[in-house]
Amino acid sequence: MSIAATSIKIPRNLKTKIERLARNTGESSHAFMLRALAGQVEAAERYQAFLQDGVRADEAMLRSGLGYAAADVHAYLEAKVAGRRARRPRPVRWRG
After folding, report:
1. Taking a C-beta distance cutoff of 8 angstroms, is the pair 75, 81 a contact?
2. Per-residue pLDDT tens digits for 61-73
3. Backbone phi and psi for residue 87, each to the nearest 5 degrees, phi listed first
4. In whole angstroms, what is the distance from residue 35 CA to residue 22 CA?
């Protein structure tokens, strides 16, 4: 892994919190910040992928004219969360 140096200016109260939390976890402030940044980058990447999946699904729905009735989807999810068996909703034509 190649390493690139950078510097960041952060508010003193944030630096104090980072130092305290890092000390409590037995790691350096540097390691704590790297871990926090890596976690945030991973979350942002997952969110971007989620949005892209939604756009692709929307485009597919527009092309096919098929979708799912919201009430059917909600009933399915409620049953699954409650641990009940449920039939998957069937696509319906939403435009002629």
Report:
1. no
2. 999 999 999 999 9
3. -80, 140
4. 11
Q: Which residues contact 50 (CB under 8 A, 6 or more apart)?
A: none
Retrieve residue 39's tokens.
């976690």
Residues constituting the chain: 96
Q: How many CA atoms lie within 13 A of 18 on its CB side?
A: 16
| Residue 96 banded pLDDT, cuts 50, 70, 90 | low
The residue among 14, 4, 13 whose CA lies nearest residue 36 is 14
Domain boundaries, the chain: 11-64, 65-96
Q: CA separation (Å) from 45 to 8, 20, 40, 48?
A: 22, 28, 9, 5
Q: Please, are residues 76 and 87 in contact by the beta-carbon 8 Å criterion?
A: yes
